UniProtKB/TrEMBL annotation:
SUPFAM superfamilies: ISP domain. The keyword Iron applies. Its cofactor is [2Fe-2S] cluster. The keyword Flavoprotein does not apply. One of its GO terms (molecular function) is monooxygenase activity. InterPro entries: DUF2231_TM (IPR019251), Rieske_2Fe-2S (IPR017941), Rieske_2Fe-2S_sf (IPR036922). Belongs to the bacterial ring-hydroxylating dioxygenase ferredoxin component family. Residues 197-297 form the Rieske domain. It comes from the Bacteria. Pfam families: DUF2231, Rieske. This is Rieske domain-containing protein. It comes from uncultured Quadrisphaera sp. Keywords: 2Fe-2S, Iron, Iron-sulfur, Metal-binding.
Length: 319
């Protein structure tokens, strides 16, 4: 049973009337940015969501500013030294300004992630962004009031702004943990794929450069033949679970790659590494060998992660 809080945070999912607006914003943003910029804003170079890193600046500085505002207010009510109060207010203003500057790249990274989401995720993100934009506007107004010497209204505006941004942050975390935006959708593969070698296809039956889906236990695997070599990756895309077997094989940066048909995440066939986002997590890789014309695959284990025992159909390691 969903709690009242979960129901509240889930409410934007039902706002299907947002879809036309969401699609237009996403299409415009994708068209405006070169792929290299999008990869940078997704955090492909970092292997981690850049938005999640960048939001620490506005969140941290604004929270600190509100705390200082509380200290300044308490100091003022207690009849403390005016110069001390003024110094605290100046520090709070500097933090608000720093947060406003830091909000720009954070918003750009978040918008880049948003452009490659499922429709229900986009709806939550739009409400999340609206709350954050309201907070940004209120913090900007607070900074203006500080410049005018109206510290009382500046503190009040900052407090309301922090409440708006807190609501936005709650939706952002809900988007990540409840709706799995920017999560690794292949994390389960090592835990459900049986260990051992499994025959999955005949080498001569695989057409050059045409992805084929096979299964190892319950795990979908995509096979791609390139010349005499055969590559194998987990079929479900690490970004949002798209089927790689429905994608296109391309050459990117001198490497054979496969492109997810849903959001064009691109993975190197040999290593599973991310060549282009929006995916951030690499694809699980399967070792491949050809025995008497038959293609056999085995999940390449991750250090410290034990796979389940072999199941029916496994062949001897020495085969």
């Amino acid at each position: 049973m969903s709690t009242p809080l979960v129901k509240l945070l889930d409410a934007p999912v039902a706002l299907t009337w947002l879809d036309p607006v969401a699609a237009k914003i996403a299409d415009a943003w994708r068209a405006a940015l070169p792929r290299s910029v999008k990869d940078a804003l997704h955090g492909v170079w970092l292997g981690h969501s850049l938005h999640a890193v960048l939001v620490l600046v506005p969140v941290g500085t604004w929270a600190s500013a509100v705390v200082l505002d509380g200290i300044a207010t308490a100091h003022q009510l207690a009849g403390g030294d005016e110069d001390v109060r003024r110094g605290v207010d100046d520090a709070s203003g500097a933090l608000v300004a720093t947060g406003l500057v830091g909000a720009v790249p954070a918003a750009m990274a978040g918008l880049t992630d948003y452009a490659d989401q499922h429709p229900e995720q986009k709806r939550v993100t739009l409400v999340h962004a609206s709350a954050n934009l309201a907070g940004i506007a209120l913090f900007a107004a607070s900074l203006v009031q500080r410049g005018r010497g109206r510290v009382g209204s500046a503190r009040a505006l900052a407090l309301v702004a922090m409440a708006a941004n807190s609501a936005g942050a709650a939706l952002g975390s809900h988007l990540t943990y409840r709706w799995a935006s920017q999560a690794n959708h292949t994390q389960h593969v090592p835990h459900v794929t049986p260990s051992g070698w499994y025959p999955v296809a005949r080498h001569d039956d695989l057409a050059e450069g045409s992805p084929v889906q096979v299964r190892v236990g319950e795990t979908g695997v995509v096979l791609v033949r390139r010349g005499e070599r055969v590559f194998a990756l987990a079929d479900v895309c690490s970004h949002l679970s798209g089927p790689l077997s429905g994608g296109e094989v391309v050459v990117e940066k001198g490497r054979d790659c496969i492109v997810c048909p849903w959001h064009q995440s691109t993975f190197a066939l040999e290593t599973g590494s991310v060549v282009h986002g929006p995916a951030l997590s690499p694809q699980p890789v399967f070792d491949v060998r050809v025995v008497d014309g038959g293609v056999q695959v085995r999940l390449r284990e991750l250090p410290g992660v034990a796979s389940p025992p072999p199941v029916e159909g496994a062949v001897d390691d020495a085969a």
